[in-house]
Amino acid sequence: MTRIDFHTNVGDALLYACRLVRKAYLADQQVVVLAEPARLRTFDELLWTFSPLEFVPHCMADNAEAVQTPIVLTADLERAPHHRVLLNLGAAVPPQFARFERLLEVIGDAPEELASGRERYRFYRDRGYTLNNYRQGG
Predict the structure, then answer these.
(1) How many domains does the chain have?
(2) What is the per-residue pLDDT for 59?
(3) Which superkingdom heads the taxonomic lineage of this protein's source (predicted)?
(4) Which CATH number fits the domain that encloses residue 66?
């Protein structure tokens, strides 16, 4: 069964997600990042700039190098080249999340993120998944 970890009270969800994928990369973990196309573009740009002295190798799923790239960004999980860790930055429950060993949900402080995060939490809980919650800050 997929392990599901919620990271809540994170402030800026995309910046927090950058730190998560950097940590995964440094631990030799492959991560697929799922979000809507506009949010993916913003996340891609942030990965290049959030830490000026560090590089987190990443690309879009349709890139020829995606199979060898540790961090892959996609709006469609059918294009995911690996199924170890899924980081969901989208508003909906990922349709194929059960293919992954682990699912990370990052919930920012914006009202719409909190509302959709609560819906996803209930969805997983109601289907019997064990949920781990990592609350940041106070």
Answers:
(1) 1
(2) 97
(3) Bacteria
(4) 3.40.50.10110
